[in-house]
């Protein structure tokens, strides 16, 4: 079932990207570094974390910021009582950070929270001064609620590793994106290979279904260390690994700003993918 988007919560003129992928694959790391890359290219960026853990933006802000659902609850869900700085925080290099949060486990719908977040940002006119919006979306959940960012996005990006579980999740996420694309402008932009020295299984799958890898981040220890330092890769001391990762993100941001052709993707059925992956 497709639920139509309220016209009052359309984002407007900004370019909008939604980052999906298996839980734990590195979507928040990817989103935050991509947001900084956009900002380094002169863009005004808003990153919206869509996970109840509300940890999407901590490398940008150096803390866990209050969520939209928390601040709405604090005013008994009277949004007119909120100010912009109650739920929007400036992070590294001017990236504006928002954590949507979510309902308590097993209750409510994440799609409501995403919708309320965008509505608040519009009411406070932040999106009028924004060039790029990056949604960092909860992993593995492709129900109507957490597919809600796809109603706003121009392009969806899928983060994956070179392993069975990540590619299996990518296939299902691609199916969800295509379902939303029937009624909305969102299209699949491409794949970000993460935490993988090799990409042979990703490449085989991409060739089979019509996907394309736009960036490749190997399993670099500096990425792990940056998270421990609560920092983006653009704040780390320079060394070859840091410069490699920064260049990948800057090239990805440049390509997305230039515009990518939508991919014609044909996901596999689960059983066919099970037989396809791996070695003979």
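^ structure tokens above, recovered residues below v
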């Amino acid at each position: 079932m497709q639920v139509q988007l309220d016209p009052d919560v359309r984002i407007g003129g900004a370019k909008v990207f939604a980052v999906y992928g298996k839980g734990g694959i590195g979507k928040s790391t990817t989103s935050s570094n991509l947001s900084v890359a956009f900002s380094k290219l002169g863009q005004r960026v808003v990153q919206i974390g869509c996970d109840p853990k509300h940890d999407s933006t901590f490398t940008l802000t150096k803390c866990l910021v209050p969520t939209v659902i928390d601040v709405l609850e604090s005013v008994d869900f009277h949004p007119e009582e909120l100010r912009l700085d109650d739920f929007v925080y400036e992070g590294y290099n001017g990236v504006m950070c928002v954590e949507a949060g979510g309902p308590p486990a097993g209750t409510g719908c994440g799609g409501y929270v995403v919708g309320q977040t965008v509505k608040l940002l519009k009411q406070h006119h932040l999106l009028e001064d924004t060039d790029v919006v990056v949604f960092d979306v909860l992993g593995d959940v492709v129900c109507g609620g957490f597919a809600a960012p796809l109603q706003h996005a121009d392009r969806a990006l899928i983060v994956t590793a070179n392993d069975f579980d990540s590619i299996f999740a990518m296939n299902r996420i691609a199916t969800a994106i295509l379902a939303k694309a029937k009624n909305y402008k969102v299209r699949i932009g491409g794949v970000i290979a993460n935490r993988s020295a090799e990409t042979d299984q990703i490449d085989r799958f991409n060739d089979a279904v019509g996907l394309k890898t736009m960036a490749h981040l190997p399993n670099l220890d500096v990425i792990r260390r940056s998270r421990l330092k609560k920092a983006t890769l653009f704040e780390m001391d320079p060394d070859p690994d840091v410069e490699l990762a920064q260049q990948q993100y800057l090239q990805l941001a440049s390509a997305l700003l230039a515009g990518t052709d939508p991919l014609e993707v044909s996901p596999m059925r689960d059983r066919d993918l099970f037989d396809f992956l791996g070695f003979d």
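The beta strands are 15-21, 45-50, 89-90, 96-99, 132-137, 155-160, 187-194, 213-217.
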